[in-house]
Amino acid sequence: MSQDKSIKVLIVDDEKEACKILDIFLTKAGFETDFAFNGVEALKRFKEKDYALVLLDVRMPGIDGIETLKRIRRENGDCVVIMLTAVDDVDTALLTLKEGANDFLRKPVELHELKHSVESQLEKRALIIENRFYQTRLEDKVEEQTKSLNELNAYLKRTNLEIVRALAEAIEAKDPYVKGHCSRVTSFSLKLGNAYNLDEQQMETLEYGALLHDIGKIGIRGSILNKAGPLSDEEFEHVKTHPVIGERIISHIDFLKDAMFIVKHHHERRDGNGYPDRLPDEKQNILSKIVLMADAYDAMTSDRPYRKALIERKALEILLENCGTQFDSELVDLFISKQLYK
After folding, report:
1. From CA 319, how far away is CA 328, in angstroms rounded?
2. 20 to 30 A from 3, CA-CA: which of 53, 101, 212, 300?
3. Domains of the chain, with CATH numbers?
């Protein structure tokens, strides 16, 4: 049972002869030993050194072994504590084990039993400490990897948003009359999304979809987009193709897959008379309905080649007039009652 000198043992027994026998045995085995002849002295020594093993007599004057054990356990959960007693009492043995003792030996201690107990308990202690060390390292590694992944995800989100904003600027470059339109529609949409208590993923999809709702207008002739007068039926039918063109443009961009529905269906109506697919209300989603209303409000309150902007009050009246037919009533109510148009 040869051991590293750094392993410190505290022998606690009010019988000096018993301490001496244990000291000779453990010193010969390579341990560094100290004595304490009562509980008070034991606790004092325990605070002064880092003991790996305590041999603790149960019956001592003053603070007995069980109370000493309790206080040791409050200080150190890793220290091996082997209880020693001259009384063959099962209840006492069970009590000491319940209070945190690692083993229980009857005095006079058979040295071969002590040897076996010390070796097995110190081996268990070493395994517990080693496992904790690796567990801590693993947790640190997981935390580090999680932090790296979170940073990477944040970077990707920023990059994706920059890409989407660049695409939105390309839309507005085609039609100078809608300068800032995509940003304003996005602002209104996000306000509505927050008021509607959308989750984080829905808000991200809403932002992408709102910024890119008109990307299909890249495929619409500039002469039609900038026409000063009313559009002919043929011209309007051409404009109505922009949602499908927009869907096709972003269909190969993986992170925009969820936003495709908004881009394609932001002109569908509550009554099913919208375009391009005349979707009934139950087949639409809340995100496309939000962008529909935000887009309509900003269009009404902005100058266009063929008309001047409507005043705020008039635009809100039109939203109310078209509740349940073009727009979702709950969204209109949120938009107006919470003054999200400000």
Report:
1. 10
2. 101
3. 8-137 (3.40.50.2300), 174-338 (1.10.3210.10)
